[in-house]
């Protein structure tokens, strides 16, 4: 009986290998040959799952962005009835800030891919769309966090949302020099400060 191959699982495994190679040796380390060898494939076998390196890189980029939003919070603003608005915002900020070893590693891979994305229209669009969703979601969360309080203007909320996104991206950059999470306590303090600002 022919062996049934889970192609989606194989694609995820290939993407995981690409991420690991980039984390260890940078973008140039993730060649088709090295990915195939690390994933246990013969040369050329990767084309059964991805037509070329660009498609592997695009899938890797999307995977890393998904890891920055592991619970799909950017597309799901539903909150439990009666939930504390400040706690909802705190929980969502913790999901996107690099506070765990896993999130720190994902952020490092994302930074490796940035330079390539700048010259690749497909990757650039993927990231722009992600940033747009992130901005919109953060504005909605900030509005919810101010529930029952004086509301900021739309311009103020847009500016604060962009500040939060910029801080998170900056934290990923800082982690390049602090890969063991040495700054995580500071990131928690930053989140607390943001909460205080929304509470007036």
UniProtKB/TrEMBL annotation:
MF (Gene Ontology): DNA-binding transcription factor activity; transcription cis-regulatory region binding
Domain HTH tetR-type, residue spans: 8-68
Pfam short name (any one): TetR_N
Keywords from the named record: DNA-binding, Repressor, Transcription, Transcription regulation
PROSITE patterns: HTH_TETR_2
DNA-binding region: 31-50
Recorded superkingdom: Bacteria
PANTHER family referenced in this protein's UniProt entry, alphabetically: HTH-TYPE TRANSCRIPTIONAL REGULATOR RUTR, HTH-TYPE TRANSCRIPTIONAL REGULATOR UIDR
Name of the protein in its database record: TetR family transcriptional regulator
């Amino acid at each position: 009986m022919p062996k049934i191959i889970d192609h989606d699982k194989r694609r995820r495994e290939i993407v995981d290998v690409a991420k690991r190679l980039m984390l260890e040796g940078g973008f140039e380390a993730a060649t088709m040959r090295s990915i195939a060898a690390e994933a246990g494939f013969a040369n050329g076998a990767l084309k059964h799952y991805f037509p070329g390196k660009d498609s592997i890189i695009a899938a890797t980029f999307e995977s890393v962005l998904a890891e920055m939003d592991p619970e799909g919070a950017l597309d799901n603003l539903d909150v439990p009835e009666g939930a504390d608005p400040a706690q909802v915002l705190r929980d969502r900020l913790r999901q996107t800030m690099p506070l765990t070893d896993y999130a720190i590693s994902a952020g490092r891979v994302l930074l490796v891919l940035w330079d390539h994305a700048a010259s690749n229209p497909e990757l650039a669009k993927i990231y722009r769309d992600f940033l747009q969703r992130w901005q919109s979601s953060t504005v909605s969360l900030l509005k919810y966090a101010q529930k029952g309080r004086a509301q900021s203007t739309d311009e103020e909320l847009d500016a604060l949302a962009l500040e939060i996104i910029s801080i998170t991206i900056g934290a990923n950059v800082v982690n390049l020099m602090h890969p063991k999470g040495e700054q995580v306590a500071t990131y928690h303090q930053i989140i607390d400060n943001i909460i205080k600002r929304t509470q007036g």
